[in-house]
Design goal:
The protein is α/β, with parallel strands linked by helices. It folds into two domains: 111 residues, 3-Layer(aba) Sandwich (Rossmann fold), CATH 3.40.50; 108 residues, Rossmann fold (3-Layer(aba) Sandwich). The chain is 34% helix and 23% strand. The radius of gyration is 19 Å and the shape is elongated.
């Protein structure tokens, strides 16, 4: 059994770890970042005809002011964000497939043109040519202190999952070149892959920027190592 390291923030890290364990992997959680709510001024709900959330952290960090948009058609980038919205009292949520461009296209195809996007301070680029997005940051990701157990736990052959370019940068700063040649990376995007730097045993990027796709690559890599 190969160790798979999940470096994304909680609570998403625990969800990914549970899925990895269900696939027979030894999952280790070492978050590099944590979400922190920031103050924001809620605009009038009547200025918009749709609400968009692209992270479950946005749902949790928006605070009580999120309730004032419960009457708007609500869209979530993926199932995890949709689940967080439903738990927050939003009964009718349209969930996308994990890509911001896809869910914005869905908003446009449903006939909405003015969407409020509650997000973090750093957001992956989204083509909003068909929908006027008003983006308001309700949280930021703060770097956690380096955890020395990350290096001691990464045995040769371990697989590290990188869910963002910022995580890749932070990982590259913490893992010296001398340790990289025995470790495998699976990055959610080419940008995340590039941020990790060079010198790793192998690096892969899934066809779609999706957690399950990353785990499928990890499972395949584990099977290959076992042969």
């Amino acid at each position: 059994m190969r160790r798979v390291f999940i470096l994304r923030p909680e609570p998403a890290a625990t969800r990914t770890a549970a899925k990895a364990a269900a696939l027979g992997m030894e999952a280790r959680v070492h978050p590099l970042f944590a979400p922190e709510a920031i103050g924001w001024t809620p605009p009038p709900a009547e200025d918009f005809d749709a609400l968009l959330l692209t992270s479950a952290n946005g749902v949790r960090c928006a605070g009580p002011a999120l309730d004032r948009y419960s009457g708007l058609p609500t869209y979530a980038v993926g199932q995890a964000t949709a689940k967080a919205l439903r738990e927050a009292g939003f009964a009718d949520v349209v969930a996308g497939l994990g890509d911001g461009n896809a869910i914005v296209s869905r908003i446009a195809s449903d006939g909405y043109r003015r969407a409020l996007h509650l997000a973090g301070t750093t957001v992956a680029p989204i083509d909003s040519s068909a929908v006027a997005l008003t983006r308001i940051a309700v949280y930021r990701m703060i770097g956690l202190p380096p955890d020395p157990t990350l290096l001691t736990d990464t045995l040769p052959g371990s697989i590290l999952l990188i869910h963002s370019a910022r995580a890749g940068e932070r990982l590259a700063a913490q893992v010296p070149q001398s340790r990289r040649r025995s470790l495998h990376l699976i990055a959610i995007s080419p940008a995340a892959q590039a941020a990790c730097g060079a010198g790793w045993a192998s690096t892969q990027v899934p066809a779609r920027p999706d957690d399950d796709e990353m785990l499928a690559l990890a499972e395949s890599l584990c099977e290959g190592q076992a042969q």
